[in-house]
What does this fold into?
Amino acid sequence: MNESLLFLATFILYIISAFYYFLFLFKKRENLAMIGFSFALVGLFIHTIALFLRTFESGHAPFTNMYESLSFLAWSSILAYIIIEFKFEIRRAGPYFLLIVIALMALASSPLMPKEATPLVPALQSYWLWLHVSVTLLGEAFFAIAFITSIMYLATDSKERKGTKSGLSPEKLDSVSYRCIAVGFPLFTLGGLVFGMVWAFYAWGRFWSWDPKETWSLITWFFFALYLHTRIVMGWKGRRSAYVAIIGFLAALFTYFGVNYLLVGLHSYV
Amino acid sequence: MKSLLNYFSSVKLAIFLLIIITLASILGTLIPQKRGLDEYVARYGQFGNLFHKLQITKLYQSSWFIALLCLFALNIIVCTLTRLAPKLRKALQPKIEIETKEITVLKIKEKFKKSTGLETAKKDLENELRSRHYRLKEVERENKTFILARKRILGWFGVDFVHIGILIIIAGGIISGAGGIRKYLTFSEGKVLDIREAGFKLRLDKFETEYYPNDSVKDWKSTLTVIENEKPILSKVIEVNHPLTYKGFVFYQSSYGWNWANTSVEIWVRKRKDPSFLRKINMKVGQKASLEGENIHISVMHFIPDFIINDRNEITSRSLQPNNPAAFIEGWEEEEKIMSSWIFSKFPDFARIHSEKETDLSFELKNFKADQLSVIEAAKDPGVNFVWVGCTFLMIGLALAFYWPTREIKVILEEDHGKTEVIAGGIASKSKEALQSEFERIMTSLRRSR
It folds into this structure.
């Protein structure tokens, strides 16, 4: 058994899962969503084994280059989705969310991403690597669900205004978005900012240096802080909240992806 | 004064400042920071000077950005204080005796008659609430008993913990920025440097670079010894991610380099017409060596690790890495210079010999060796512990605010001809559905008990 084979198997399982979820969307039969969910679950299981193998093969945490980190983000996203689906039954978000996961997996498998495990540069040799990256990416996975449910909110809300009813009520989508951010925000704060500062202190000698990656994670954090304040203190709900959640996720995406390709800084690993 | 206070305690100001700080932060990531003025002018033309004047070129350290942060901190302080006092009062000295209508306006409520007397009803309710970890406060008035049951009161203060945490972090940042000391120390093995600010000395005993099998760097390790009053106090091997801490100073393995000024070179000398002729000379930069069997001295005048001729036609080193090592040598016959040449280790055929006198000799820079230098960053960061305390507050606060929702159940029991009228309502700061179901269970068990 080898890691890239398992990765491929996982990829296929996620695609099948998305296929059944979309079938469910069109045929409106609940059991199709169940099949989709089961494939996602099996995919997560195989993916977990793939990550374990990667860790054993490389001897370090499975998120030290773009390929590994994309794969891990896809894993966190499926995990987050399964948790949220289990708790709030948001099946209709499944097909769209799986598209994000498939996009991540496709990006990871693209030839642009070198796949071979390289030995760790000195700065990454720390157990903070495990804590900082895994917690941050898990937090971002929950932001991604909030992103999808917020977009769905905007779509269903405008449909309802025209008088057509759809599967998930806008109120539910709004509340699930909030719940996802209520999970993602503390995780992102802990993993991205707090663990990031602790590690920066040990590795670079300063807890904060306004490096673009640092600044952008702070910007992401500000957007979600804005989401929480406008919602809890000023009573924003629905459309306006959804827009802030969407912008917040886009900021998170830029922090994760854009900063490395567009801006130059210390944090040049992934 | 009052209106100023209101202004600073408004959430609108907080949101406005948050947006402004976010936009400023974004701007700072789009414009490269802390470069020379020339670079900005070359890049942005006229605007380069403007950016420099507006301190956008060092945005995060600019007075206006720091002022914004301070204003934000002030806003948080006022917001927290104005909200904290009433909350504390509510937590410590709650109003227990309440009007019936204060319950009837609640979303979660119930009203029913129980066939037992007030004392029994009260006992049953108390037991049920206590078994669910509620803390009770009671007041009796005539034929009425008021019960206030609450749990997870700390949840109300989650937000305040978060805000106090952020304030402590900002304070830590300001203390670090204002009182922090930071300098780079360049050591060769055996060298002792006096860290004057710290009041002790530091010696590098050993420096080594470890490599992976594929030749990429695995780690740099420096063995450091702290020397205080001429006595060694402690030794530690530091590496990246594992600094040495002593008396508030932290020493990081920051970088490495070579002491090129003191390079040893190995030069092979041949004669074009005599293939059997080969002399190997080892010497240091600046030294002279005689060529065995010949009446000639060779001296190495310069060594450059990364040879380049720049725009101004000057010979210089592009970097401190040995990417294109070159040595400048001179050959002397008695007191007369007979030749000089740059020789390149990577391009042995490229040597351009400038001869004053006919010579048959050719030179190769075969090898070079310089002591490795360890670059250690010494830092004293008086704010950092504030930051860790702030982070702890922040995380505890977030956990409390999101996952420790305060629940309150307010009950009025009224004796009415041997029976008891129960009016009860519940308030939750979050997850109201969960309280609803707990509330219903409490009421059901109260109804059933005799």
Chain B has a mean pLDDT of 89. Chain B touches chain A through 47 residues (CB under 8 Å).
